[in-house]
Amino acid sequence: MSKVVLVTGGSRGIGRATAVLAARRGWSVAVGYAGNAAAAEETVAAVEAAGGRAIALRGDVAVEADVLALFDGAEAALGPLTGVVVNAGIVAPASRLADMDLARLRRMFDVNVLGAYLCAREAARRLTAGGSIVFVSSVAAVLGAANEYVDYAGSKGAVDTLTRGLARELGPAGVRVNAVRPGFIETEIHASGGQPDRAQRLGATTPLGRAGTAEEVADAIVWLLGDGASYTTGALIDIAGGR
Ligand code: NAP
Question: Which residue in 10, 46, 66, 187 has its CB near the most CB atoms, within 10 A?
């Protein structure tokens, strides 16, 4: 069955790969983004080239009005949503907790936790039986990211807990809720944290001996969105090379 999927943070990285793979299934994709309009339009073109309908929608997931407009805009352009990928997220430069200021902590939890909750709430209000929500968490939720990102790790712990709770809440309505927990994946998020080579450098230390690709994470996300995962809910799937 054809699907209509909203991907937050769909302009780049894991979100972009998910949008393109979804389009290869013939699904329509709303591409959410924060400010990089050129990247969002490029992703829309890639989705269309892959066979799907697409629209780019700008907004900050930490702002309630933006989230409402994002969901309204997606449904106005593409029809009722059948899937939502809660993917938009940020890191900040590596630091010990003792050195993190309030502005950094507030922004981390605003985007990664409040943003995830606001998007999940809209998804819960709109999805009907057969719908699927996929969160993009991180193995950092389990490992803690000491000396680098304990703020980020805690924000993803909240996403894991939301996944478990919302899966139980929405299961009776026939809406599935799952998360993927990527490890070191080659995207631009590492440059935004001041370490462009981080995934390659640390990926080499994992059991599989390399970083993962955005496409390898997208494969799992698209499976969870699809009808092949019809009996999977409340699952947290590590995609981290055995880390
Ligand atoms: P990325 O390449 O940096 O892309 C981030 C995406 O999120 C972009 O589309 C960006 O939009 C959007 N975004 C950022 N802040 C936003 C906001 N406040 N409101 C709306 N959109 C926002 O990141 P990525 O590596 O693909 O990461 C995607 C998700 O995977 C994140 O939740 C991240 O925590 C998680 N993850 C990544 C890794 C990894 O190694 N890469 C590992 C574990 C988990 P613009 O293009 O407009 O800036």
Answer: 10
Ligand 1 atom at shortest distance from the alpha carbon of 112: 32
The angle at the Cα of 81, spanning 225 to 25, to the nearest 5 degrees, equals 45
Given 2.60.40.1120, 3.40.50.720, 3.30.460.10, 3.90.550.10, which CATH number is that of 4-239? 3.40.50.720
Nearest CA to ligand 1 atom 12: 9
Strand order in the sheet with 4-7: 54-58, 28-33, 4-7, 83-86, 132-136, 176-182, 236-239
Q: How far apart are the C-alpha atoms of 16 and 46, rounded to whole Å? A: 9
If phi over 0 gives left and psi between -120 and 50 gives alpha, with beta otherwise, what is residue 95?
Answer: beta
Distance 26 CA to ligand 1 centre (A): 24
pTM: predicted TM-score of the whole model, two decimal places: 0.99
The burial of 40, by beta-carbon neighbours within 10 Å (0-12 exposed, 13-18 middle, 19 or more buried), is given as buried
User: Which pLDDT tens digit goes with each residue over 14-43?
Assistant: 999 999 999 999 999 999 999 999 999 999
Residues whose beta carbon lies within 6 Å of some atom of ligand 1: 8-9, 11-15, 32-36, 39, 60-62, 87-90, 111, 136, 138, 182, 184-185, 187-189, 192, 199
